[in-house]
Amino acid sequence: MGYKKLDEVMELLTDELDGFNRSIDRLKQLTENVDNIQIEATSYEIQKIIREHLEKEKRDMESIDWNTDTIRKAVINAKVIPRALFWLMTAIWTVSIVSICYLGFRVSRLDSIREKSFEAGRKEVLTSLKGYFDLNPGLYEAYEAWRLKGTKVDSTKTKK
What is the per-residue burial (b if ≥16 Cβ within 10 Å, else e) of 49-74? Predict the structure, then answer.
């Protein structure tokens, strides 16, 4: 019975050795393949990529320099307005606009003021001439006819 187990172990060892030998043969074959591969040790492609990168960086730096110069010139030519001057100008503009609006309002009321002034002047003239008209009633009637005639003419002019 002991031989039977020994035979099994021997058979397993034989199988393992055969597998090991096949692995060794495969390893030899791969080694030959690797030995046949030739690697070119040129750096031409790497140098080309580096050159392209350096040219791109040079263009970018020139662009950055140009933009920096443009910004520097703009800052040098910039005019800074003090805050007090800003508020002063705002106040001047506000006063000017309010004055223009006020004067526009006053001018728009000019006709009504003129009519009131004319009416007040007419009443004042009539009161001052009342003594004269009392002495000469015929002149007062002629004045009234003339005044009414002027009113009719004015009303016909305004209708047209």
Answer: eeeeeeeeeeeeeeeeeeeeeeeeee
